[in-house]
């Protein structure tokens, strides 16, 4: 049986299709459902066969997908871990109707095996990931286009206080999350008003000096944080005796068996002493293609299980009974290599001076990144010049830009209202969100209106 951790968090997948590349668009609306239970299937990958465009279903299984008329004779492919891949001719969809698309669950059938001393352990499988890393991931620089959404909320009252949406370009030197050579450029951005309680800059600098952190840009955090395609990170985990490495289960993806491995923090070390993790621990879950030993997906969770008398207001920081933060990355195979497709993050990002008051305000981020386009040949993309480079300490919420509503008008967003209605309600307490985008653009514009 597959082990899963269910997040009661509305993570919507978005797709970036540059509006300047197509003159005519056609729209497909649909909902992905389990063929046996008729329940919605969230976060399925929807793409055009043999084309590098696509989107994802949201937490309710819904999607809206725009594609160029030149591909109207193509096939729509739906993939999801634990389900059979489904392909449907585009011309079978009827316009202005929400198509009900059923995908069939596929259980992994355990073959008969002889258990003996030579059977590989979970640690052996992780070592095979490391050994095959150079075969599975691009070793030379490559280019990606993506969509970034960053929401900021107050943990204590669960109110949303800030929203940034941006279309970004990334030049990545090679695989791995600790690569400081990653270069990011913003080519379109829009911001809501900032309803967070800003503190003074000098207090923020004191806090940074005391706690040892510096300002971090959400674009770099989600790109590099908890990336287990980084060789050094995996090697440290294999050698770290504070963690256990165990098989968690098997599943299926695109007709191939997938091994699930849990790497769990069992002990914490402090001043040459180690203690068993009782109330909190880190859990890393890896989904591994058993043929190539490539990572299809990685999940990092910060799990807390304190007794009830210790909870008090802290219970408000949890996503469910135990999860207080996570970082998830999903990969897609293009030609012979695997590339980042989708990433999500929930936790603290220090990107503004915040007047956090214990018991009243404490701000955290829900950040998502969807990679829409990958170019692997250096001749086919331009290097991001230094003048266009997004610095790691540049705040997205207050950066200089000119808001361009025409860019977003035909932007291939997953659903009509891309935001959870509660997010929109929180942010629109004064003026509509669209007007906020315009006002924020005028306020931060480098050119007078």
Summarize the structure in words.
This protein is of the alpha+beta class and 449 residues long. It has a domain at 122-400 and 421-444. 15% of the residues lie in helices and 36% in strands. It contains 9 helices and 19 strands. The protein has helices at residues 122-131, 133-136, 201-211, 218-224, 231-239, 308-311, 405-409, 421-427, 433-444, and strands at residues 25-34, 45-48, 54-56, 62-68, 75-79, 86-89, 98-103, 142-154, 159-172, 183-191, 243-253, 256-265, 267-270, 273-276, 280-289, 295-304, 323-334, 337-347, 363-375. Helix 1 packs antiparallel against helix 5. It is globular. 33% of the residues are buried.
Describe the structure in brief:
The chain is α+β, with helices and mostly antiparallel strands and 449 residues long. 15% of the residues lie in helices and 36% in strands.
Give a topology summary.
Layout: E1 25-34, E2 45-48, E3 54-56, E4 62-68, E5 75-79, E6 86-89, E7 98-103, H1 122-131, H2 133-136, E8 142-154, E9 159-172, E10 183-191, H3 201-211, H4 218-224, H5 231-239, E11 243-253, E12 256-265, E13 267-270, E14 273-276, E15 280-289, E16 295-304, H6 308-311, E17 323-334, E18 337-347, E19 363-375, H7 405-409, H8 421-427, H9 433-444
Parallel strand pairs: 1-7
Antiparallel strand pairs: 1-4, 2-3, 2-5, 5-6, 8-9, 8-19, 9-10, 11-12, 12-15, 13-14, 15-16, 16-17, 17-18, 18-19
Helix pairs in contact: 1-5
